[in-house]
Amino acid sequence: MHVLCDWIPTTLLHLLVLDIYRVLRPGGFFWLDHFFCAGDQLEEIYAPLFQSVGFNKLQWVVGRKLDRGPELREMYLSALLEKHLNNSWS
SUPFAM superfamilies per the record (predicted)? Predict the structure, then answer.
């Protein structure tokens, strides 16, 4: 998902994450690695988006992305998410 952040509309990303959730078996894992965005977008848009789908957060690591300069305030997100065993859609 490295290329998806801030390149597609938020609604489309939400539908993509919902589709990933739908095809995972109960107890299945989704590994989101090196997802980057602006720091304020992470807290306002993307963190609530991933939490609203229904994943259980097993690991959630946020770090600064400095390759284009610290003034851009970009952040990396790497997360290990699990689909719940009960109350699953499928």
Answer: S-adenosyl-L-methionine-dependent methyltransferases
Contact status, residue 60 vs residue 40, Cβ threshold 8 Å:
no
The residue ranges of every structural domain in the chain are 10-82
Whole-number Å distance between alpha carbons of 53 and 46 = 11
70-83 per-residue burial string, b: 16 or more CB within 10 A, e: under 16: eeeebbbbebbbbb
Alpha carbon 21 to its chain's center: 12
Structure letter (DSSP) for residue 24:
S
pLDDT attached to residue 3: 47
How far separated are the first and last CA of the chain, in Å rounded?
24
